[in-house]
Amino acid sequence: MKELPIIQPNENIDFASYVHQFKALADEKRLLIMNILTRNGKTCVCDLEVEVNLPQSKLSYHLKILYKAGFIHKETKGTWSYYWINETVVNSILSEDLCCLFRPN
What we know:
By secondary structure, this protein is α+β, with helices and mostly antiparallel strands. It contains 6 helices and 3 strands, in the order ααβααββαα.
């Protein structure tokens, strides 16, 4: 198993962005949406609506939260929006650096 470095607590860490991101992840439907986007890649909102089994208004609400937290990208073509995972942000929130902030010595 890989040894993770111990990071000493720093009083100057800004946790506000993490709070926003973790709140965005704290919903089963949003996690499902992210899982679908991870599996499918760039996906039309019309296809997500079917896979997630949510009305368009509720799906839009969840997508907006994920988008504002930076977890997904959005591209609009005509009347349709396409979404895909923002790998940089997802990898950052799942990184060894973050886990080590909370690892005891």
